[in-house]
Amino acid sequence: MDCFVAGNNATIEDVDRLQTMKVFVRVAQDGGFATAARGLRVSTATVSKHVSALERELRTRLFDRTTRSVALTEAGRIYLERCLEALHALEDADASVGELAKEPHGVLRVTAPVDFGEHLVDAISDVMHAHSGLTVDLRLSNRVVDMVEEGVDVGIRIAQSLDGRYVARPLARARLSVYGSSEYLAKHGRPRRPEDLAAHRSVVFAEPKLLDNLVFARARRRVAVKLNVAMSSNSGSALWLAARAGLGLYVCPSFMAGDDVATGRMEPLLPEWALPEYSVYAVYPHRRFLAPKVKVFLEAAAQRIGDGSRDPWWTESPGK
């Protein structure tokens, strides 16, 4: 099993590039060289040689190693996402011939954050209209679901980055912004800089943790702000309605905004200051042959939402 690895100074040209990518992904997913080696049924030295050859080729460190732990570097996280995309494409190619004649059927179990469910309805409608033998179980929860343990086929994750446990397909970017209603701004004034937010009332998302500490960026300047919380909730929709009613300013992702920004009822504030941007991913357990029901849903979601390259929900305030 170790025969595909050359000596300690091996380069990518000396070893199989695809195998090296698979070894790297396995180490990232398993969180250790020894665990990955057991899963791959090779020696730990073999795994180490693959990763070392890859790091030499890329001229960057992919893992921070200590005697007790292995963690991805920032470069490692980026490379992991690209490797997963490449391996996913290869798996699709391998499976396409065998799966071509199979009609999607059975129950498609999808999980998503509570406030993102409405953005999946069109994709779900598309696959159910096209495939009469398919039913959908849509589970909305803000907790991170263990997809394997709970039998979930596809999960929607909204995050700045993922940990690599699952295959991830980017669907969209989601810009985080401060929103205020015309009623609130007329009564309390408009914040002109991030520091002004501390003097305003805010409605704040509270799950999994209270989003009351923000860091705004502009050029090379960073400004940390602690919000004055007037209301908190684990329902983004409820907070949006509260902000629209003038109870406070609201920091939320663009997919929460809807038509209220286009009509001028709600306005994005401090547009020249950037908050952390999130990405929307469709994730699913890593397996060689992708079930037809999962494939059709992923394609429908990509058609309806996007390919991860843009924010489809961002709307500038009228006149801005």
Q: Biggest sheet: strands, sense, closure?
A: 5 strands, mixed
Give the number of helices. Answer: 10
At the fourth CATH level, what is the homologous superfamily of the largest domain? Periplasmic binding protein-like II
Computed over alpha carbons, the radius of gyration is 23 Å
Would you identify the regions where 5 or more consecutive residues have pLDDT less than 50? Answer: 1-12
Indicate how many domains the architecture comprises.
Answer: 3
Tell me the strand order in the biggest sheet.
Answer: 4-3-5-14-6
Average pLDDT rating: 86
Any idea of the CATH topology of the largest domain? D-Maltodextrin-Binding Protein, domain 2
Structural class: alpha/beta
- The share of residues in extended strands comes to 15-25%
Total DSSP E strands: 14
Brief overview:
This protein is α/β, with parallel strands linked by helices and 320 residues long. It contains 10 helices and 14 strands.
Describe this structure in words.
- The chain is an alpha/beta fold and 320 residues long.
- The protein has three domains: 12-86, Arc Repressor Mutant, subunit A (Orthogonal Bundle), CATH 1.10.10; 104-171 and 278-304, D-Maltodextrin-Binding Protein, domain 2, CATH 3.40.190.10; 176-269, D-Maltodextrin-Binding Protein, domain 2, CATH 3.40.190.
- It is 34% helix and 25% strand.
- It is built from ten helices and 14 strands.
- The chain has helices at residues 17-30, 33-40, 44-58, 74-99, 121-130, 147-150, 182-188, 236-244, 259-262, 292-304, and strands at residues 63-65, 70-72, 106-112, 134-140, 154-159, 167-174, 176-181, 201-205, 213-218, 221-226, 228-233, 249-253, 266-269, 278-284.
- The strands form four sheets. A five-stranded mixed sheet has the order 4-3-5-14-6. It has a five-stranded mixed sheet with strand order 11-8-12-7-13.
- Strand 3, helix 5 (121-130) and strand 4 (134-140) form a beta-alpha-beta unit.
- The longest helix is centred in the first third of the chain and has 26 residues, at 74-99.
- It is globular and about 65 Å long.
- Residues 1-12 have low confidence and may be disordered.
